[in-house]
Every structure is written in structure tokens, then in C-alpha cells.
Specification:
The chain is built from 13 helices and no strands. By secondary structure, it is mainly alpha-helical. It has one domain. Helix 6 runs antiparallel to helix 13. The longest helix is centred in the last third of the chain and has 28 residues.
């Protein structure tokens, strides 16, 4: 369960990029008091992927990573793309319009709890006392942060439920990725999962949102650029690296600071209210990370 120095640096960068992205996405599709106006969410995501995919491809070229995946592995690749990216990105960007950025992040990052349960129930993982304590602390942190959201969520129950289902499927996908048998570099898998997700997102955006298409405002364009470079050219590759090189519970619990950062940055940038539960959750998240990452 111990993390190397390289994994910790990757984790730190991933936490910052993904944590700040929650209010960035909210700003891009819903605007704010200073930047009013909405933008079609699926189109927002499709444009981010269309811009980010060439950057990721260029990185593979520079690093001399091969693009080829044998036809016998296409089915496995499709399953990995569906469970790790396609469903997650569709649900998140649509549900985010009905939730605050911080609370959407919290709901999405119930994934570590689902990951631990999948591991024990299906994949034969055995957790020690510290790991169960970490899972419990993370779960308690999520419950604390949701305490003040029950009234708000009652108006949009589909969004909350969809986020939880997406987190559960993502947790399953993390286990599948860790056990993937494709004899190709990880970056190759990441590129083609992103490419498949981009195709699906473009088709859905065209079918559902084309009547609402318009040129994005400056703040939306900035948010699209942030997602293209930060999320699709870096963060996904970083996450899949951690998911494949660390035990499932360690890799998933280690990202629990992301919703904390998303909650506080959303409060700072978008004026979303904070409560004592937010501060208590910070301590619980840090305790959970320490329980699963570091030596006794």
C-alpha cells in the first residue's frame, strides 16, 4: 500500500488539476454572476475532447509510444472505455448543471468506497485494518459533506442518483483496468479510450444539442481549453497510471482530496456556501489518505 515518490508527485498534480476542474466545468456550462449564460454540456465536453485528443496524440509521438492495438483486444478496449470514461463523462457533465460543483465532486468521489466494496465482493481483495479505517473515514467525509445537500438534492434526485451510479461503474472500471491483459503501453490504452469517448460524445452532442449550438463566451472557451489540456491530455493518463501501479484501494482513496479542493475552490470562485461539515471532511480525507498510502 506504500506510495513511491513519483506516484506522490503525480497524485499531487492530478489532485490540483482535477480538483480545480469542478468549478471550471460549472463555470463553463452554467456561467456565474460575473459571467452569465449557459452552454450545452455535451457540446462543451465534446469540444474539450476534440482539442485534447491531438495533444495527447502528440505526446505519444514525442515519447515514441506505439498507437497500434491488435483487433483481438478491441472488445476489451471498448469495455474499458465504457466503464472508465464514456458513462462517467456523459453523466458528470449533464448532472453538473443541476448540482453545485463541490457537491457534484463529492458524489462522484464516492468511487473509493465502491472500489473497496467491488474489490472485496468480486475480485478477492483483502483489506487490513488500516485500509478499512481509510474507507470508513472517506465514507464518513462524504456523508458529512452531503448533510446540507439533502434538501437541495430533493429537487434533482435524478442528478444525485446518476452521479452515484457513475461512480460505482467507474470503480468497477478501475478494477478492470488494473487487470487488463492488453500487451501495449498504458498511454496507448488511454489514447484509444479517449478517442472512443470523443466519438460517442460528438454523436450525442450532434443528435441532442445541435439546435442550441452557438459560439462560446470567453469564460466557456477558457474552460474548454483547461479541460482539453489539463484533463484529457494529462489527468486521465495520470489517473490510469496510478490506478494500474497502485492497489485499487490506495489509488482510489488517494484521490479523495479532489472533491475537497473542488468544494473549496467552488466556494471561492462561484460563491457556493461552506459549512462546518466541509472542514471536518478535510481532516477525514487526509486521515483516509494517510491510512492507505504511508508506512506504519
Amino acid at each position: 500500500m506504500n506510495a513511491t515518490r513519483r506516484q506522490l508527485w503525480v497524485l499531487a498534480a492530478l489532485t490540483i488539476v482535477w480538483g480545480l476542474n469542478w468549478p471550471v466545468m460549472k463555470l463553463g456550462i452554467s456561467g456565474s454572476a460575473l459571467h452569465p449564460g449557459t452552454y450545452p454540456p455535451l457540446t462543451f465536453r465534446a469540444l474539450s475532447m476534440l482539442l485534447g485528443l491531438p495533444v495527447l496524440g502528440a505526446a505519444l509521438r514525442v515519447l515514441k509510444v506505439p498507437f497500434h492495438i491488435g483487433r483481438e483486444h478491441w472488445r476489451e478496449l471498448a469495455i474499458l472505455a465504457l466503464t472508465n470514461m464514456v458513462l462517467w463523462h456523459i453523466v458528470v457533465i449533464v448532472a453538473l448543471a443541476s448540482l453545485s460543483s463541490g457537491r457534484a465532486a463529492i458524489l462522484g468521489y464516492t468511487m473509493p468506497v465502491f472500489s473497496a466494496l467491488w474489490g472485496v465482493a468480486v475480485f478477492g481483495d483483502r483489506l487490513g485494518g488500516r485500509q478499512w479505517a481509510g474507507v470508513g473515514a472517506a465514507g464518513l467525509g462524504v456523508l458529512l459533506l452531503l448533510t446540507h445537500e439533502f434538501q437541495r438534492l430533493s429537487g434533482t434526485p435524478w442528478a444525485a442518483l446518476a452521479m452515484l451510479v457513475a461512480a460505482c461503474i467507474w470503480a468497477w472500471g478501475t478494477h478492470r483496468l488494473r487487470r487488463a491483459t492488453m500487451p501495449v503501453p498504458l498511454l496507448t490504452i488511454v489514447f484509444w479510450m479517449t478517442a472512443l469517448t470523443t466519438v460517442v460524445m460528438c454523436v450525442l452532442a450532434t443528435l441532442i444539442e445541435s439546435p442550441r449550438w452557438h459560439l462560446p463566451e470567453a469564460h466557456t472557451g477558457w474552460a474548454i481549453g483547461y479541460n482539453a489540456v489539463g484533463v484529457f491530455a494529462f489527468a486521465h493518463a495520470a489517473w490510469f497510471y496510478l490506478a494500474r501501479t497502485m492497489p485499487p484501494v490506495a489509488s482510489s482513496i488517494s484521490v479523495m482530496l479532489i472533491p475537497v479542493l473542488g468544494t473549496f475552490s467552488g466556494a471561492l470562485w462561484l460563491g457556493e456556501a461552506l459549512h462546518w461539515q466541509d472542514f471536518a471532511a478535510v481532516a477525514l480525507m487526509v486521515a483516509a489518505i494517510g491510512a492507505v498510502l504511508f508506512r506504519r
